[in-house]
Structure prediction request, 226 residues.
Amino acid sequence: AQSVTQLGSHVSVSEGALVLLRCNYSSSVPPYLFWYVQYPNQGLQLLLKYTTGATLVKGINGFEAEFKKSETSFHLTKPSAHMSDAAEYFCAVTGSGNTGKLIFGQGTTLQVKP
Amino acid sequence: NAGVTQTPKFQVLKTGQSMTLQCAQDMNHEYMSWYRQDPGMGLRLIHYSVGAGITDQGEVPNGYNVSRSTTEDFPLRLLSAAPSQTSVYFCASRLGQDYGYTFGSGTRLTVV
Prediction:
């Protein structure tokens, strides 16, 4: 079984500051991990994913995440926040055993202050 | 290439009514899923499918049915609507487990 915990339902940063959104997962099999972004009144858009290989993955809009197996974490970062990054972010996990089940965390709302 | 199409976009139901939320994708994706989104609870998986003729329950399946007779379509049926089913429903599809989901634009359902 898989589960995801996102630490902090709201994160506020100043424009230009580092963005760090935390995600911890639980999985009984090697996980595949994803980050999605949702802008108001829209569907979800894939930011990046980790399946196998390099543990530091780069995504769209300057975001990246690092898979740390020992810490069961997959935190999302961006060196410098833009106003346009304000949105809700979701971490998700699926098991590598050919299951269609993708489980989401509760989401973190990112506020960017001018 | 329309992606994932959900209809209707908005719906108001009375308690006890039934209805079907439609979902269609034109990307030949094998995997499809239905989620509901409620404030503070993220997206919760209702049902999912790994191919035509194959469906399985997710985290919150009670009160919902699905079928997958074709690769393209994955309708979600509400058997007897309840106010607790007021939510935004998203359908999503992906090519395989290594791939991210493509999401539809959602159906906002209100049960009164």
About this structure: Chain A touches chain B at residues 6, 9, 32, 34, 36, 42-46, 49, 51, 90, 94, 96, 98-107 (CB under 8 Å). The CA atoms of residues 72 and 108 of chain A lie 18 Å apart. The radius of gyration of chain A is 14 Å.
